[in-house]
Amino acid sequence: MLDPRALRVWRIGAALGTLFIWIPAIIVVTVTYMADWIWPWAALILLFPLLITVLQVLILPPIEWRRWRYEVSEREVDMKRGVFVVTRTLVPMSRVQHVDTQQGPLLRYYGLSAVTITTAGGGHEIPGLSEDVASEVRDRIASLAGVADDV
Amino acid sequence: MPLWLVLPTMSEPQRLHPAAIIILALRVGRQLVLPLAAPVVFSLISQGLDALTLGFLVLAISALTLLIILSAGWGFLYWQRYTFQVVDNELHLNQGIIFRKQRTIPRERIQAIDFVEGVLHRVFGLVAVRVQTAGGSEPGFSLIGISRADADALRQELELRPSQVQEVAATDADLDSEEVPETTSAEPAAEPIRAISTRQLLIAAATSGGIGIALPIIASGMSVLNNMMPEIDLFDLATRLFGGVSWWSIALFVLLAAWILSFAGTILAHAGFTIRRSDDNLLIERGLIEKRRATVPLNRIQAIRVIDGVLRQPFGYAMVKVESAGYGDSAGESSVLFPFIRKSEVDQFLERTVPEFAWMPASYEKPPRRAIRRYITRKVLLGLGLSAIAIALLYPLGLWALATLPLFAAHGYLCYRDAGWAVSNGTLVMRYRSLARSTAIIPKRRIQSSDVSQSILQRRASLGNISATVASGVSGATFSVIHLEKGVADQLFAWTGRGRTSLDRSRLPRQLKPRGEAG
């Protein structure tokens, strides 16, 4: 389970992300308003960012949050996530090269941290754990990775 | 209680040497110089010597001051936030000004460390310590500047043998690119395992899939040419070659040009392709004008891929590719092991070059029949999308694109027919078709991570996808088979792991029972 605060951070992040559609949409509507050109029909364009916002900020994050599962066993890290496509990922301990905890300003404000597990084939992230849990998970994986030796 | 729990903490968090601030500041300064100098240079160019007024001097001086403050400030903050320490047999790093990062590297994962000495490092008597992790596609990271004494202490704390430490002299430019200078050793020339004959080369060139890449190049090249040099009449040329101007003749002309381009490309790249094996390395020589030599260490090879090109499969020929890991002088990449080989000889060829991967299964486990519809729908939807674009661009001619839909459906069916997997003795073989058919041979011990996924549409039919990732280049290479029976995908997924976790309660199917394999 991820930390409940992760949900809030995701929502803020998603809300910021929707600015990329809101801003162009508002510009289009403003221009048509000023030019008195197909106004007020153009205002319907705003429905599109509205729909995306409802989906991205209100509906999807809680489902995604509820679905997220991870487990660190002695031999592997097991992660399960996804709303439309549910994906489960297995990373054998013997493949782990290093483990990071990272936090940007937003995560830090909420006292959260993300754990990134790096293998030679790429990175895997467990997002939104509380700082304490994240450090614990990081150290646990690192020490288990240290003893797993069937390289 | 494990031993590491009772060991005392071996060191306090340590900073880099203070002189590293200068190295850091210079590094960021070099990146900032251009944007900050731009306004100064711009006014010099636009106004010539007249620009040398008081205002200009103020501008220049303030740009310089800003540069110094920014880079020194960043260098200092970076240095201040950057600490490292060895605790419990692990190397811990703590870094980041705005984005904080704590990294833990188990000592067992550290393969070797390099002491890199740049010009600036020499001035201050420092070394940069570059840490290499096992089978890694990137150097883990590098400590930008610590004193030699500290570097030696670090080596001792990590209990690395002196042989695991490499001294590297480098200019500071090299430090950024993280390149290891080449260590060439004279390899005795071994007997070639296989060399391409002229006849094979010609057939290979004629059937290479390069036409798909060359086509857009030619097409866009022609339209550019047409705009730039209207006096060259492409229509006229096409008319003379094929008689009569029509869309067909132009399309034929473009197709022919693309084919010639891809033909020449293959000849240039693969002429004289020879593969040898010397001890634990594969030596590959190829190239018509520019002779290329590549050395692939056998233990860096992660997976083998046999590709039956669209034009080659009907004739029973294929190309063999290799995914390998590494960095620096032995950069990991996906490269050609042999460009053209009879399918029936692949097994034997692999046996002689990369025995670990020598298994071309005789039969494959398949997706269930109810997946056929999905394989076909997928491609038909793609075809519809492309047709929509064609129609939007070229109405009404684009309507012809709809005539290609049966081709997409047929392709979808082929994708279904070719999808499959097989498992034996710790090796997973996945076969799938994108355009060409690929067979990926992946030893279990090379799998870096695996995924099983299911979309909401697949859930209703209880189908799922499986994929396995191996190290290759920077980001790794992932192979997938889609629309398998979900239960089978789950079991295959469990097989790629070591033990079982509580998220997984499935039994191994008959074909996945271990056959005397370790782990």
Short description:
The complex is a heterodimer of chains A (151) and B (519). With 151 residues, chain A is α+β, with helices and mostly antiparallel strands.
Account of the 3D structure:
The complex is a heterodimer of chains A (151) and B (519). Chain A has 151 residues and is an alpha+beta fold. Chain A has 2 domains: 4-65; 70-147, Roll (PH-domain like). Chain A has helices spanning 4-35, 47-67, 105-109, 131-147, and strands at residues 69-72, 76-81, 85-92, 98-103, 112-119, 122-130. Chain A has a 3-stranded antiparallel sheet with strand order 1-2-3. In chain A, strands 4-5-6 form a 3-stranded antiparallel sheet. In chain A, helix 1 (4-35) runs antiparallel to helix 2 (47-67). Chain A starts with a helix and ends with a helix. Chain B starts with a helix and ends in a 23-residue tail after the last helix. Helix content of chain B is 39%, strand content 27%. In chain B, the strands form 5 sheets. Chain B has a 6-stranded antiparallel sheet with strand order 15-14-13-18-17-16. In chain B, strands 1-2-3-4 form a 4-stranded antiparallel sheet. The radius of gyration of chain B is 29 Å and the shape is globular. By secondary structure, chain B is of the alpha+beta class. Strand 4 of chain A pairs antiparallel with strand 4 of chain B.
CATH class assignment of the largest domain in chain A:
Mainly Beta
Rg of chain B (C-alpha, Å): 29 Å
Number of strands of chain A: 6
The percentage of residues in β strands of chain B lies in 25-35%
Major sheet details of chain A: 3 strands, antiparallel
- Would you list the SSEs of chain A in sequence order as H and E? HHEEEEHEEH
Q: How far apart are the first and last residues' alpha carbons of chain A, in Å?
A: 30 Å
Output the strand order for the largest sheet of chain B: 15-14-13-18-17-16
Q: What is the CATH H-level superfamily of the largest domain in chain A? A: Pleckstrin-homology domain (PH domain)/Phosphotyrosine-binding domain (PTB)
What is the helix fraction of residues of chain A, given as a range? Answer: 40-55%
**What's the assembly state of these chains?**
heterodimer
Strand fraction of chain A: 25-35%
Class from secondary-structure proportions of chain B: alpha+beta
Please bin the fraction of helical residues of chain B: 25-40%
Query: Judging from the principal axes of the Cα atoms, what is the shape of chain B?
Result: globular
